[in-house]
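Deviations from the work plan: none for this task. Representative record:
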Amino acid sequence: MRSNGLYFTADALLSLLLLSALLALPAQQQEADWSQLLALQKENDLLKIWAAEGMPFNEVEIISDAQFVFPGSGMKITLDGKEIPLGAETGSAIASEIIFFDSGMQKHTIQLAVYR
Amino acid sequence: MSTTDSGGSRTGGFVFCCDQAIANKRRGARKGFIFSLDLAIALITVLLMLNLALLHFNEEKESLLAGAKKSELQKNALLLADSLVKNNNAENPLLGAAFFDNEKHRVLSNVVQKELLREAQADSFGGWHAQALSLKTKNGAEETFFAEEKQAGKDCVAVERFVIAGTEKALLRVAACEE
């Protein structure tokens, strides 16, 4: 009976340890990541305005706009296939693309990728 | 009746019987005492476990609630900024300050009218309100259209959008705070 009591207490202590270990695990928090959506919206703002400005591409102005909107971020701008890297291209990226036609119905593409 | 003379407690059957009974009783009492103590310790342990679990779940609940509130505020701020740059609302310019092209009969997204922005006022939307609206141009000039005092202990979220204001490119910044 003495040993039974000892086992009973040991079981309870073991359960306590197990429960503590389970409780120590952080709960899964399902929070929406709105920062990605905001980055996407700002990229779309840039692309819309660049497309509205039309041809020919003013690379200096485009680079200046991108750095104004995303200061300190690594980016890659592609104007009709010509890549313009800006800063470090590390980590994951959020990218957007716009296709537009100029007054001569020539198709043009601008891609913008912002690295996080 | 038997007798033994070995120095032990056995001196007679009757006495042996009583001694044995007393010994058994004492042993039982010890067993009972130890068992009760172990049971008490086990019960205390179980109660402690339950208390810890309840405390933990309560904390997790509070944390999740706060996270959900913050997320809701971020969503509302994003939606307000989007409405500001994509709609034209002369009655409430906070909800739409985009330029309306009469020739094309449509709103020009991301092209905002400073005149409309200057008419915008802080507004409450039930649980949160627009706290500030400002415009920062590429050449560094900044114009604040309205800015309310930030309440202590209340969360705020600021959202920026790239726009053309007049002839200048600028970042339109709107801040939303919880009430």
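The first strand of chain A starts at residue 75 and ends at 79.
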